[in-house]
Amino acid sequence: MLGLEIEKNIFSQGYEILGAIDEAGRGPLAGPVVAACVILSPDKEFNEDFRELIKDSKKLTEKKREEVFDQIYDNFLEIGVGICNHETIDRINILQASFLAMKKAIGALRKKPEFIILDGKFPIPSISIKQKPIIRGDGTVFSIAAASIIAKVTRDRIMREYHKKFSEYEFDQHKGYGTKVHMELLKKHGPCLIHRKSFGPVKKII
After folding, report:
1. Confidence of residue 178 (pLDDT cuts 50, 70, 90)
2. Among 79, 150, 178, 190, which residue has the fewest nearby CB atoms (within 10 Å)?
3. What is the pLDDT of residue 9?
4. C-alpha radius of gyration, the chain, whole number
5. Which domains does the chain have, with CATH numbers?
6. Which among 97, 101, 95, 129 has a CA at the least distance from the CA of 115?
7. Which tens digits make up the pLDDT trace of 62-91?
8. Rounded to whole angstroms, how far apart are CA atoms 168 and 127?
9. Number of helices and strands (H, E) in the chain?
10. How many C-beta atoms lie closer than 10 Å to residue 70's C-beta?
11. Closest by CA position to 25, among listed 70, 85, 75
């Protein structure tokens, strides 16, 4: 079970509204990057059965992530999601697009967090909210892991919708990641509208 020590420590400093952020989709060759921010308050208690379900999204099957998704919405105070598409990624690069998606996720919230914890080693640039990046936070911090599931499920759903339009690339299977099957289909058909033209493997084929 993932700990809540970091969250409790932040609340003990007097903060009332805490946001936890993670993103999904930095690595793929196609589709958007998606960030999610989950909001919790010091008076919220999470029962053990729910806490047992929450893990880094990469450690859960697609079916299990889908099952947990609605429960996360039910258990957290509020959730914001931010999306940056392939065009934005190509224009400003994947790191900056990830940060922009995180800012959009914060902007989608009614209750603005007083403190943010996020997965990774870099803070979100140009925001006034106090924040703490945590390396491998999605695998060690309960609320960041919850955000990772929201981001991953949201992005997977988007990629399954893209599959209906670009079925020859099988986006419903690999979600845009550079798997062997995806690379073979990319070479066969060439890039489609949602491929990231600035990414090396796509660039080579163009």
Report:
1. very high
2. 190
3. 97
4. 17
5. 5-205 (3.30.420.10)
6. 129
7. 999 999 999 999 999 999 999 999 999 999
8. 41
9. 10, 5
10. 10
11. 85
CB proximity list for 160: less than 8 A, separation 6 or greater = 171, 172
Residue count (the chain):
206
Q: What is the pLDDT of residues 15-44, one digit of tens each?
A: 999 999 999 999 999 999 999 999 999 998
Q: Could you give the CA distance from residue 52 to residue 146 in angstroms, rounded to a whole number?
A: 11
Residues 204, 195: Cα–Cα separation, whole Å:
12
The 3-state secondary structure of 95-157 reads: HHHHHHHHHHHHHCCCCCCCEEEEECCCCCCCCCCEEEEECCHHHHEHHHHHHHHHHHHHHHH
pTM of the model: 0.96
Query: Which two three-digit tokens encode residue 121?
Result: 């080693």
Which residue is associated with the tokens 């099952």? 67
For residue 3, the model assigns a pLDDT of 85
Distance CA 29, CA 70 (A): 28
* Residue 44 CB contacts under 8 Å (≥ 6 apart), including other chains: 75, 76, 77
Looking up tokens 């060690």 gives 140
